[in-house]
Design a protein that fits this description.
Layout lengths: L1 H6 L6 E7 L3 H11 L5 E4 L4 H4 L8 E4 L1 H9 L3 H4 L4 E2 L2 E6 L6 E3 L10 E4 H13 L4 E4 L4 E7 L2 E6 L4 E9 L6 H6 L3 E17 L6 E7 L2 E8 L7 E10 H9 L2 H12 L6 E17 L3 E2 L2 E3 L5 E2 L7 H21 L7 H29 L4 H15 L2 H12 L12
Parallel strand pairs: 1-2, 1-11, 2-8, 5-13, 11-18
Antiparallel strand pairs: 3-7, 4-7, 5-6, 9-10, 10-11, 12-15, 12-16, 13-14, 14-15, 16-19, 17-18
Length: about 425
Amino acid sequence: MASAVAGQTANGDKRDLLILGGGLVGMTLALAAARQGISSHVVDRADPADLTAEGFDGRASAISTASWNLFANIGLAPQLEPHGCPIESIAVTDGMRPGRIDFRPEPHEGSLGRMFANRILRLTLFEAAKDEPLISWHSRAEIVERERGPFGVSVRLADGTQLSASLMVAAEGRNSPTRKETGLTIAKWDYSHQAIIAGLVHEKPHGNVAWEIFYPAGPFALLPLLDGPAGQHRSALVWTVADKDAAGVLALSDRAFLTEVEKRMHGVFGSVSVEGPRSAFPLGFHHTARITAERLALIGDAAHGIHPIAGQGLNLGLRDVGALVEAIADGMRLGLDLGDPQVLKRYENWRGLDSFMVALATDGLTRLFGIPGRLPSAIRRLGMGIVQRTPPLKRWFMDEARGVTGDLPELLKG
């Protein structure tokens, strides 16, 4: 699918953007840029067939209201709409003890977001990219050399192909080789925890409620998905466990795994079964001191990696996309080169502080709810009770979850 598109690109085909990384954030950038008439090369090591293979494995993403606006504004809403499960409310509880918070917007405000299986997001993005002439997609491609200079950027692929553009964008994820090669300063730490991901099928409907259950060992999240083809009620599980326990949890038999899961669910969905494989991902925090350099911009996890506690990781990356596209498009209208320092400075100023504040907030929540003991739990539940009874506070938290606060790029507005 992708190689045919790449095969049409000859050496010397200079484009506006050279996007390194064709995952959810990188490909969304390419499509959003194309809607503004901005061309791109997209280079990715992965095989699209592997990323979109059949199967339900629980890997899913919460798409905030602002991120949904972005997908709608670049023309993807009709394809995505039938596959998204609305999040009508979020229940936050400290170990299922009394004093939980229920975040539920007014009916006229719409949902708090939508849950999508990652496979569906990828399929939709890849299909749109395949048919977009402004996107030259190079999949299964190894980069052996990167160059940035006063007049442009380029990469050389393992097969000898040379690709050039005006601006390089690193969208390669947490271990971005471009970021490492550039030497940008990064603050990082390891939480010594891993997220266990699994798909659950359960007896009772989830009612479009996302559950965030906090235990001292880590958060336990149940995220609503659309019912399966045979009417099965489905949710995605994101269970945070200590590093030392992760291998053991993955190795449990299905029966033993379900026993541990049901113990933490307190029967909210009735009887439960696991569908598809389990997987684990290490959790850490990182944030670059700067998200730009000469003719380079970082987006998504290449710029900032946060704890999945609030489901904001992908949404932060999509906000990067909206801001970068707007900064570039506005600069072009003024006659500026895409890699002009003024364009990059606007993007840096726009996204640097917002992403840092979200990262700090998620880190603080992780640490706050990780303090064991009855007294810390009682204090947390007292605070949660105050939020539950204070409508302006609840509205602020809901607006943050929906991504509609602060200086939003036009692409993220309804």
